[in-house]
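Lab notebook page, bench 4
Experiment: in silico fold of construct C2
Operator: M.H.
Input chain length: 832 residues
Purpose: comparison with the prior construct
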Amino acid sequence: MGEESANAHLGLPWPEAYLDLKPLLQKNWGVGNEIYLHHKLSGKSGAAVYTADVTSSDFNGQAILKFDQSSDSKQKESDEAERHQRAYETAPDYAEIHLPKILHTLHHENSLAILSTIAGQGLEFATPWAECSHRKQLSVVLDLSPGLLEGWNAGHTFSEGLRSPQELLWSWLDYRLDPKAGGRIHSFINDACGIAPDDSSFVFEGRWYPNPAAFAARDADFGSRLRLRAVMGQSHGDLHGFNVLASTAKDSPTAYYLIDLAMYENRQFLFYDHAYFEISHLLASREYADAANWQSLLYHLRPFEEQNTAIDPRGDDLGLLELMKEWQNGLMDWVRDHHLARISYMQNQYLLARAAVGLSFTHKMVPDKIRRMAFLYAAANLKDYLRRNSVDWPKHGSNFVLSGASSEPAAAASAAPQKFVAPQASTHRKAEHPPLPEKHSLAVLAFKNLSGDSRQERFSDGVTQEIITALSHLDWLMVISRGSSFAYRDQEPDIARIGQELGVHYVVTGSVRKARSRIRISVQLIDARTGQHIWAERYDDDIGDVFDLQEQIADTIAANIDSQLKLTERQRTQRSSEHLGVWERYQDALWHVYRTTDDHTEHAKRLLTDIIKDTPNYSAAHALRAIILCRDVTVCVTDTPEKDLEIANQEATLAVSLDETDSLPRVAFSRVLMLQGQTELAVDQAEEAVALNPSSSMAVMCLALAHIWNGDASAALQPIDMSIRLSPKGPFHEFKQVMKCMCLYMLGDIDEAARLGHHVATGQQTGPVGPMIYTAILARQERFQEASDIIARLHEAWPGVTIGHLKKNWKHMHPACLAPLLKDLAAAGLPE
């Protein structure tokens, strides 16, 4: 019989890296040849972990055999054994059921072996949680999440005095936050992400995020109000899906076992384990997530927040979100049951723990994309923490790219504005300019600093960058990166040449003049093909918060560029006799929608029907069809509101499913939800639309309308004013003014409502709604003759409009808003 056959009973082969340990542990542990390697559990972080059947003088049964390497294996051996012992002594009842017990340890040179027991019926009835089915994972999560707090930390304590958030982060992360002590976080975000470690914020997918590395700086001063009474207890320190073994025995009294306590601490700030388990599973299961998917997951996994249930996540994320939400719920239930009087402290501590584990994974030597995802996880949770504590944090910074390093690391890290050398036009025939893309394209040149002070150049660059970021939300428009467009800085721009060299249809130029407490920004939109100035505007404002001002001005400029470009393309479409593509046909439909008359509206519906027939997956067409139906209901020009809303719901739902990143489908869905009585969800959906495109006048107007239907007129005023500012001459201008009239009327400012209504409430665009609102205002002022005259003209244009008609179309408006309106209309003489 050969050697291989003779040793077959030994099971799995001994790991080659640890062959020199085999004779030593056979001798020192008294096991001889009686070690059977049954199943390899993992090979994470250089360790090799096996289930083993062991027969020795002091133990007979199944155990865990772990091999590892360390430059100081003797110290690591004693540390891990000591940590296991402390875990047992601190919570013996929990440990007896859920933790292993160290049997033997052995070190040799740089190698280490640890043999430990496991509670329960044996490791053949346990599987790493990460390898279990979804159903099994869920059952373990339901036990483990509360078990870590109720069982393992039943004897938890509170810190002496109040602790700063930086103290918690440094306690969890230690040297990782100190580049002088070997921490790699700062160098990674600087070199691979293009973010200077002391930059306050950065921008990802059009949204700002705080820089956790800057926040964690020891000298950051936030005053005493951010200090918290921190809860302390036991921390596993490396709790992931391979360090939790799920029991698979049918009659097992327990659901899980915890292994590998090498990072265990018995006096540490809590919630780190919960956060670590979540992020480790997210990163392992969504390694290939794109930017939109990762941002969506971060949104849906925000703890302590009521999520927008109308915003559906991606289909294959549903199971993942279910697991992680149940994991969070275990912690939240414990907080509510035990520390309701300190719930704000607990919530803040959990958010900080989540920021800490994100930075911990940013520090690990794993693929760069995983580290970027982890850094975004940290930043997203820190943003929630700052928002919950009303911290006024700067909201401007460099662009962050998930899939690769930033294109501008040097510019981001530099204290002075980056100077670019303009590309020279080549005379070689083969160096052709890029062709114009099918998608409409635009470049924003660096705005000129006219302040006479070179130090203000960063401000003008910041304005330009904010405009680029805002325009990047427009999915129909391709925006050239800052790196390319800033190459023309300090030149007198030749728009035609720039358009050819960058391959763009349009170019935006501008200037910034800053003097004392005032700022003036001028901007021009130019057709690079013809040199025609399409639009120009000047903005004057007081200087307050510089970053907020940059953001506000950029949103306004982007919104006007958006509307002006679309108007230009609609006019080009109307003049064109060539074959129109889908986008141009859609713009043609919009042109008719904005005319607002019945004939134009019907023509728009026919155009959209044809577009959908030819291109059934064109999300914007479905969204616009839903918006038209909702508008008919809102302005009371339909006799079948329920039927129309049913169709609109189908169209809006389909539009969202076809494109989750576009703002318009969210607008459509919000309008449908509002008119069908789901007003709180309508507000949430409108807020999501604004988040997707803060420069969209339509999205902001939709948010205002949702607030009105939800009975909160005061909340509607700010977005109405913002929508007007974003598009002061847009197609919905009259309707926005009527909305403002209605808010003022609801809030009891009748005189101002009447002044505004006198100018706009009888326009064609608002249908019968404008006259009705103005009639109610006049009735409240007891100007009944004027109200009666308005009603007479109303019935000439819309003879079927009655109080009953309004009740039918607006039946889901909040009663506190609808009831007074109906009462005043009845007093004015509008028939029932």
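Observations: The radius of gyration is 32 Å. The chain has a mean pLDDT of 79.
Next step: discuss at group meeting.
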